Amino acid sequence: MGPAVKAYAVLELTDIASEAGRENDMTTTAETTQVQTPDPTAETFNGIHLETLQGTVAAIAKEPELGACKFRATNRWLGGNHNRTTVSGFYGAKQEIAHKQTFELHADEPPILAGNDEGANPVEHLLNALAACVTTSMVAHAAVRGIRIDALESELEGDIDLRGFLGLDETVPKGFTDIRVNFKVATDVENLETLKRLSTYSPVLNTLTQGANVEIRVEPK
Amino acid sequence: MGPAVKAYAVLELTDIASEAGRENDMTTTAETTQVQTPDPTAETFNGIHLETLQGTVAAIAKEPELGACKFRATNRWLGGNHNRTTVSGFYGAKQEIAHKQTFELHADEPPILAGNDEGANPVEHLLNALAACVTTSMVAHAAVRGIRIDALESELEGDIDLRGFLGLDETVPKGFTDIRVNFKVATDVENLETLKRLSTYSPVLNTLTQGANVEIRVEPK
User: Fold this and answer.
1) CB-based contacts of B21: which residues, under 8 Å, 6+ apart?
2) Which of B152, B159, B160 is nearest to B134 (CA)?
3) Which residue of chain B is at minimal alpha-carbon distance from A77?
4) How far is Cα A154 from Cα B85, in angstroms, rounded to an integer?
5) Are A49 and A38 in contact (CB under 8 A)?
6) Which residue of A68, A123, B55, B129 could cross-link B36, Cys pair, CB 3.0 to 4.6 Å?
7) Nearest chain B residue to A127, by CA
8) A27 vs B71 pLDDT, higher one
9) Rounded to whole angstroms, how far apart are CA atoms A104 and A82?
10) Chain A contact for B46, CB < 8 A?
């Protein structure tokens, strides 16, 4: 068990009771609702800046509306199947927050789908989002619980029948029907079942399995 | 109306009947089920290699099992909230198909979420996937119908309450609840309603709104 368990007890409010035999402290000593930025010299567990995460969690626990985030992206069509997304900042903790750098992401289709392979295609980008999110969720929640992970990798595969997208058969779903995510984790073998459970905290996973309301507007430019 | 309409009539099987006053030819002249790669000198519409797309559509219409695709990604945890996805190929048209290049995508979290901002975060990657997919779907299906698009851009914003992910309140959804996608399109204004309808062919959009089965396995490494 790592040094973070007591400090992060607040993060475990909903499920620590089910983890028999684990020490916990349901209080937090954080007195501030200020959002912190990482101190590079601060202690990490699984590479996570625990003190920073503690500050954020404690702040949201004390003032729940700090948890409301708006994540954003802008996209520009570059012709054909090629387009580029820009991500520069988001809204969280009741403030606009800029990323340290602006991220650009290119999407295209392979030649067989009439593109030039200038980027992963959109459904491959979706698999990337899922892989990244489940990984991050597992590692961060494991850190909170003092579960050490030495290495972690995953392989994802998802099924799509193009007849749906192409409009060839309206009974065929247009999106992914099944996605398989296989993790291999270097950790004590006794942790594997817990890690599988912690993966279910992933926001992207929950968006895919629970669905989201998506409103599309198309206006003249 | 562009030159592609007759050639792509097969793509419109399910909905062209609802487009009053539009010429169409429900047959296709393509006799091959061979998968084609683009000829750089071939005619394009909205930048789409129409002949290539025609070949793929005709092949799948003739032999439906060619539509079954498996898209793939692998991910490696790099420590903390930083991880990297690699996309190199997929299965489609009953064969393994390599991308012309291997794509690497980095994800991280911003400092406030205890990361180092080495990449867009996973839910931003999800917005990218959605933006890219709806854009591609709209442009390709517009090309098929001879709807010319001169420029297209979008802004996306999605709502997440971090209390769900953090486990602070189990009644709070962990994923996106609402996502707003606002397109601005340079096209004849009469096309806007059709373009909005065509956006609903997007596989990522359908995955988000209809949900997918996601199976997660966690094994020792």
Assistant:
1) none
2) B152
3) B152
4) 9
5) yes
6) B55
7) B73
8) B71
9) 13
10) yes
Q: How far is CA B166 from CA A202, B55, B176, in A?
A: 10, 48, 14
Greatest distance between any 2 Cα atoms in chain B:
61
- What number of other Cβ atoms are within 10 A of residue B14's Cβ? 17
| ipTM for this prediction | 0.86
At B177 the three-state DSSP class reads coil
What is the torsional sign of CA B143, B129, B62, B89?
Answer: positive
Q: What are phi and psi of A17, to 5 degrees?
A: -60, -25
B93–A36 C-beta distance less than 8 A = no
**A29 phi/psi in degrees, rounded to 5:** -90, -5
Q: Which amino acid is at A85?
A: T
What is the maximum alpha-carbon separation in chain A?
61
The three-class DSSP label of residue B82 is: coil
CB contact under 8 A, A128 and B121: no
Tell me the pLDDT of chain B averaged across its residues.
85
State which residue of chain B sits closest to A48, comparing Cα positions.
Answer: B80
Name residue B47's beta-bridge partners. none
Partner A contacted by B155 (CB < 8 A): yes
Confidence of residue B139 (pLDDT cuts 50, 70, 90): very high
pLDDT in tens, A42-100: 688 999 988 888 888 999 999 999 999 999 999 999 999 999 999 999 999 999 999 99
Q: Which residues does chain A have within 8 Å of residue B36's beta carbon, measured at their own beta carbons?
A: 112
Using one digit for the tens of pLDDT, what is the confidence trace for A28-50? 333 334 455 555 566 889 999 88
CB contact set of B12 (below 8 Å; sequence gap of 6+): A167, B19, B24, B144, B145
Q: Please determine, for residue B8, whether its predicted confidence score (pLDDT) is greater than 60.
A: no
| pLDDT tens digit sequence for B27-36 | 233 333 445 5
Taking the C-alpha atoms of residue B52 and residue A27, their distance in angstroms, rounded to an integer, is 62
A90 touches chain B (CB under 8 A): yes
The pLDDT, as a whole number, for residue A40 is 58
CB A142 within 8 A of CB A202: no
